[in-house]
Amino acid sequence: MSEPLRREDVAHVAKLARLILSEDELNRFTQQLSQVLEHAHDMNSLDLANLVATAHPFGLVNVVRDDVTRPSLDHDVVIAMAPDAQDGRFAVPRILGEAP
Amino acid sequence: MSLTNGWEMVVGLEVHTELKTATKMFCGCANSFGSLPNTNVCPVCLGLPGSLPVLNARAVELAMAIGVALHSTIAPSTFHRKNYFYPDMPKDFQISQYDLPINVGGFLDLPDGSRISIERAHLEEDTGKSTHLGGSGRIHGADRSLVDYNRSGVPLVEIVSGPDIRSSTQARDYASELRGILMATGASDGRMEEGSMRIDANVSVRKVGQPLGTRCEIKNLNSLRSLQRAIDYEAHRQTVILEEGGRVRQETRHWDENLATTSTMRVKEEADDYRYFREPDLVDLIPDEAWQARIREGLPPMPAERRSMLGARLHEPSDSLLGAVSVVVDLDLDAYVSSARDAGVPAELALPRAANELATDLGGLSNLSFEAFTATLLMERSGELSPTQAKSVLAELLASGGEPRAIAAKKGYEQLETGAVASVVAQLIEEHPDEWSRYRDGDEKLAQFFIGQVMKRTKGQANGKDVIAELHAKR
Predict the structure, then answer these.
(1) What is the mean pLDDT of residues B358-362?
(2) Which of B366, B362, B307 minimizes the C-alpha distance to B334?
């Protein structure tokens, strides 16, 4: 059995995801997420020693497309999706830090 | 600049280059610089729910070409999601290769003979471009940011060097040589001023022979000059801290070109804060041997090889000629030089004409055929054109095209036959008996007088050497 999920872990993940959780929510999600993880841990009962990790069940590799342009969306359609726009750009609240 | 007092700097560079593809990395939107904002965008690169990425084959091939040029091993690779919140990435994650990059290891040899190891060269997507509005126009004090997603999803290769660089000059040489390689592979246009090649520098200092010190990462250096200045500044800053008994804090720093300083941008986050995990919408990339071989065979000669090909035929490779070789390769003018050389023009003439005359008007190259360049230099070589006249014919060819002989004729550059020069000289001797006798008595200054008179009378069409020969003959 792996280590149980701690409350601090959930608080950390919530912080990274910019979620503000109350104490009650933190307790509830810790318990719920623990159950999800336990479910995944059922896999440990299988002998997987000879298998490599994979991200999906398909045997496909090298799925690529030709480098050929396709029409983009109309600018009006794009800007209509923006919560706010200025000079043809998406306007967002001021950014405090630089991009990572 | 190098450090004093037994200190040395240890520098590794991360070079990001946008790939010269027609479309973005995971969608068919045009990859083009300078379009109107948010016109090359679609559900994939805007991160709209339900959209799915499909990898651009050309981006893979250019990444492999970079790997081959850097002597890397092309390896089976995967894509990850790098999760972070920032409006330049509307999905809230960037797709990037992580623990399994397409190119592993390798090296780059610099013109000075030093070798810099390459750790990896991996594929990732570029982010959108933010413009920060507000008081200062810089990030601090901005109250609104505007985002253009045209760049979001443009394919990038990030080339990570080993921590092998020991001076800012070497860093600059590495970046410059790498830029030449990226352009030669066709992967990049190398336009640093347009942001298509951007450099982050990891800088630390230590006493020679000691273990590595704590490093700082300087972000987004977008010219070779900034790179060199920022590294010098940062190494000096760290040395001062350590000499005063302080400790260097590991952090990301921002280079301010105007202030010529670096400043704290943010204290380095833990790598796992990005919660990298495999991108489930993309499958593994495992280029087979045939695909790799096609890339390998299609790769043109790299700058180092081109320099040695151009330099090999020089009888006396002076610094200025070797400098011309570098310029010719940097500006991709090799074909002019080699076609002139193949037609019998010495490299000693073709190299400076290409490196000096052609380099001043690169936009005009479309007007200048290899044949016209060669023909002009052959006329100069035979004495039909003086060096000044040949340069002027080249300038005219670059400006508006045409045929060298016709341009020379139009400019009145057709030189007189030696016989005609002789008769003009004879006439002048008759008209200026005093000057002639002084010249015969050994007053060499008078040679210039006669040359000047001949040129005046022939409207500059006489060859100076012919005039001198004639004066000597009659003396």
Answers:
(1) 93
(2) B307
Using DSSP's 3-state secondary structure scheme, residue B100 falls into coil
**Three-state DSSP state, B143:** strand
| Chain B residues with CB-CB distance to A90 below 8 A | 38, 87, 146-149
Q: Determine, for residues A90 and B275 on separate chains, whether the beta-carbon distance falls below 8 Å.
A: no
Q: Which residues of B touch A93 (CB under 8 A)?
A: 144-145
Q: Say how far apart CA B203 and CA B236 lie, in whole Å.
A: 10
Beta carbons of B23 and B125 less than 8 angstroms apart: no
Distance (Å, whole) CA B198 – CA B124: 14
Between CA B131 and CA A91 the distance in angstroms is 9
Same domain, B211 and B313: no
Residue carrying the six token digits 């070409």: B65
- The interface predicted TM-score of the complex, written ipTM, equals 0.83
Nearest residue of chain B to residue A78 (CA atoms): B38
Taking the Cβ of residue A76 and every Cβ of chain B, the question of whether any pair is shorter than 8 Å is answered with: no
A35 in any annotated domain: yes
Same structural domain for residues B200 and B149?
yes
Residues 6+ apart with CB under 8 A from B209: none
**Into how many domains does chain B fold?**
3
Cβ–Cβ of A70/B254 closer than 8 Å?
no
Across the interface, do B58 and A98 touch by the CB < 8 Å criterion? no
Domain count, chain A: 1
Q: Check if the beta carbon of residue B376 is closer than 8 Å to that of residue B348.
A: no
pLDDT tens-digit readout, B227-254 = 999 999 999 999 999 999 999 999 999 9
Q: Inform me whether the C-beta atom of residue A39 falls under 8 Å from chain B C-beta atoms.
A: no
A52 at B interface, C-beta within 8 A: no
> Which residue segment(s) compose the domain that A23 sits in?
7-45
Domain extent at residue B236: 7-295
DSSP class of B282: S
Supply the pLDDT for residue A98.
Answer: 53
Burial of B468 (0-12, 13-18, 19+ CB in 10 A): middle
What confidence tens digit (pLDDT) does each residue in A5-29 have? 899 999 988 888 888 999 999 999 9
CB B330 within 8 A of CB B362: no
